[in-house]
Amino acid sequence: MRIAAIRIYGVSLPVVGGEYRMASATNKVLDSTVVEIETDTGLIGYGEVCPAGSVYQPQHTLGARAALEEICTSLIGLNPLEIENVARAMEAALNGSSYAKAAIDIALWDIAGKHYNARVCDLLGGAVRRKVPSYYSTTVMSPDDTAALVAEKQAEGYPKIQTKVGGRSLEEDIATIRKVGEIIRPNVKWAVDVNRGWSTRDAITASRLTEDLPYVLEQPCNTYDEIASIRSQLRHPVYLDESTEHLGIILKAAVERTADGFGLKVTRLGGLTAMRTVRDVCHFARLPFSCDDAWGGDIIAAACVHLAATVNPTLCEGAWIAAPYIDGHYDDIAGIEIKDGWIDVPTGAGLGITPKQNAFGEPIREYS
User: Is 265 noted as a catalytic residue in this protein?
Assistant: First the structure.
């Protein structure tokens, strides 16, 4: 089997409700990049990468497409089942840009699953359950609006709530945390996600002023070093998210005990192949983590869910997918959905996603 063609698509994903606000940016429309790899046997695999705007992380849409332009021609003729060899070819063609390479990697796992008539989660070691927990992430809103939304999502059955703060006065952030603390249920996991929005001073202050509340503090400051410098002064468990750019940082955090867990993004770390290794490191270190991505449709959502299905339930912090913020699906039958706060693991071969005809429009690039 050989890679015969690669097609790149651009897919516009407007945000339901108008906008999604984080500490660093407010997004109204996300621009996803879908990769379609066709083999000489007729099998087709799909991958996807969708950065959350251009300032949330160094990753951005045009960067992903430029990287794919550098990579794709060198992959034609390779065996898609030899995923590690394809990864070496990508490294030889371009240094870095792991998030763009992740879309290729995901498509290769999709092809492998279809070839072997197995689900991606089966190839990654095997699913440990038929559905995985999700969590709902609020946008940065007023204290009252945030609490009202948290109450609604708790009632829907979400086992975890993530409250976003940052990008405004610390007083309003603390007020929001306090307001949510009044209504959060004891059996619901709770994370306060700052998305790098606080200084070290503000992180220490906020944690100490709310030390009576049972939340996990996620990525309070911009860099790993900033968080490491104040770790002993914080009153809450700390999860790293944006700092986890590669396996080396995760290993460092595990050894230095800088983090109590992680919010991990599949494409940021380079795809399912890299995440399989990260998963096993976290298992060994007994560090919980989530299986998320920045944004995107059914393809990246399916990748996150397949990975989460293989995680020890005691360490699985859930899978965040953008489905609640997007209208429609690439696959109208097997599109990934959240039901009562949980996500069914796809049952079809590969990712289990079959995009409907013309789901992506015409390709913006094609290589053969």
Answer: yes
Catalytic residue list contains 189: no
Longest dimension (CA), the chain: 61
Q: What is the mean pLDDT of residues 38-67?
A: 90
What's the pLDDT at 350? 98
Residue type, 331: D
Alpha helices in the chain (DSSP H): 61-71, 83-93, 98-116, 120-123, 143-156, 170-183, 200-209, 224-230, 247-256, 272-285, 298-309
pLDDT in tens, 89-139: 999 999 999 999 999 999 999 999 999 999 999 999 999 999 999 999 999
On whether the CB atoms of residues 364 and 342 are closer than 8 A, the answer is no
Select from 353, 349, 364, 367 the least CA-distant residue to 118. 349
DSSP 8-class letter at 345: P
Q: Which of 164, 179, 189, 339 is catalytic?
A: 164
3-state class (DSSP) for residue 162: strand
Which residue in the list 153, 179, 189, 265 is annotated as catalytic?
Answer: 265
Q: What is the pLDDT of residues 311-347, one digit of tens each?
A: 999 999 999 999 998 988 999 999 999 999 999 999 9
* d(C-alpha 155, C-alpha 91), whole Å: 47
